Amino acid sequence: MLFTDDIQINEKQRLAYNYLRDDDYTYVVYGGGGGGGKSWLGCEWLMQCGYYLPDTRWFIGRNNLKDCRESVLVTWRLVANSYGFTGYKTSNDSIRFDNGSEVIFLDLTFYPKKDPLYERFGSKEFTGGWIEEAGEVHFLAFEVLKSRIGRYNNVRYGIRPKMLVTCNPKKNWLYKDIYKPFAAGELQKPYCFIRALPTDNPFLPPDYIDTLKGIKDKATRERLLYGNWDYEDDPSALCSFDTISDVFTNTAPSSTRKAISADLAMQGRDRFIAGSWRGLQCTVKIDKGKATGKSIETDLAQLMKTDGVGRSQTVADSDGLGAYLESYLTGIKTFHGGSKPFDSTYSSLKDECAYKLAEAINNRWLQIICTKEQEQAIMEELQLLMADNVDNDKGKKRIVSKERMKQIIQRSPDYLDMLIMGMYAEVRPQNAGIRRISYKS
Q: What is the DSSP letter of 387?
């Protein structure tokens, strides 16, 4: 047989193979730097699985289907040529083996409007699979795919479900759920992590590491050359990743103040999000992708009644719908983000509220109660709290534009907008009718 143990792989790849063969480990996370052999490992592993286990079904998933096909197939052909393996055919959506096995390309893009729960994978069955560039992939895709492996001829061959996850350092669910527990010696089975750096791979081109050393951006160089997961954050970031992660486990200071903040949207334009506040404890109570003006009015009125929040304690955005609601729910506050701030050191009211939100996060005053799926999106959006003019010491404080935020995450930051509006009561002067709360760090 053409697959042999003396093929050239580095020691970190060999360690990954040991974990992939160990029944105690289901999820093998491999990576930490550029050039560590992630793609070669993934292609070779699936090639051997498909060859030795006829009529099995595997997947390769990435955030972008086009990138998945193009990047994987280049490495796949290199691996196949190194073995002299020709028993397969490729197409736009799969790699099919002559023995009946197949590897399916999966689009792991997060579609918050048309498929927020990855229901498109609900009926798929796989023997196992590989998530490539997992730092670009939404946490929920990983969670859903967990339920889809181990379902295709695993019993026939007596093999456990396996998922290989390859990645570079990224401050998201990988950092929180995999790397931090690994670094603390607390990562539990069935998970394992192999930290693979370019210096661990003796088969790289001679100038590859020099290329990485020449990267000018310090954070990128730290990530790709040194595999540094605690790379220096963007200097414009108003909050660290750790303080953002803690908002879901913080205990907010006790308070009797109640409020509701709502980011409004109709007929699929962004999302309708409403949070119910007790001081700085926010519970996400409404989260809808589509809504009519009447249903928004009804839902908000019901939330105010259920949570005992007055209309004067309810704030909603003023982008068209806020004005609409104000005519039906007389007395609610409409949030004009571009209006004059209470504190003249800020560029606008929205900027003032955003900085106040960052202060609450950094002091670990803010507590958010939500679902696990919402948690991942909120974490991503809170990282958009960035100063727009970090190098201008004399200019008024402001955050990056919403257009820029949309470019970064490829959707509207609706949870962030709702949380920013929740700070209206915190920045509004006491003599304006709302008593602000004093918090101590």
A: B
Helix (H, G, I), strand (E, B) or coil at 65: helix
Cα R_g (the chain), whole angstroms: 25
The predicted-structure confidence for 238-259, as pLDDT tens digits, reads as follows 998 889 999 999 999 988 899 9
Q: Do you know the residue count of the chain?
A: 441
Q: Nearest Cα to 397, choosing from 439, 441, 356, 438?
A: 356
d(CA 298, CA 434): 25
* CA 88 – CA 70 distance, rounded (Å): 17
Whether the per-residue pLDDT at 211 is higher than 90: the answer is no
**Distance of alpha carbon 434 from alpha carbon 358, whole angstroms:** 21
> Which residue reads 């997992």 in tokens?
134
- pLDDT above 60 for 13: yes
Q: How far is CA 163 from CA 16, 31, 75, 102, in A?
A: 12, 14, 19, 16
Nearest Cα to Cα of residue 356 among 258, 428, 412: 428
Residue 38 tokens, joined? 């992630």
Kindly indicate the confidence band of residue 232, based on its pLDDT and cuts at 50, 70 and 90. Answer: low
pLDDT digits (tens, 9 = 90+) for 64-86: 888 888 889 999 999 999 889 99
**Burial 209-223, CB ≥16 within 10 A → b, else e:** beebeeeeeeeebbb
- Residue in the structure block whose two tokens are 């990435």: 62
Count Cβ atoms within 10 A of the Cβ of residue 331 and give its class: 0-12 exposed, 13-18 middle, 19 or more buried. exposed
Question: Angle CA(289)–CA(295)–CA(301) in degrees, nearest 5?
Answer: 115
Up-side HSE of residue 404: CA atoms within 13 Å toward CB? 9
Reduce the DSSP state of residue 417 to 3 states and report it: helix
The answer to whether the beta carbons of residues 435 and 259 sit under 8 Å apart is no
Model pTM?
Answer: 0.73
pLDDT digits (tens, 9 = 90+) for 286-315: 998 767 777 888 899 999 999 999 988 999
CA distance 381 to 229: 20
Statement: residue 98 has pLDDT above 60: yes
Chain centroid offset of residue 46 CA:
26
3-state secondary structure of 10: coil
Paired strand residues for 167? 31
Rounded-to-integer distance, Cα 277 and Cα 159, Å: 49
- CA dist 378 and 290 (Å) reads 19
pLDDT higher than threshold 50 for residue 104: yes
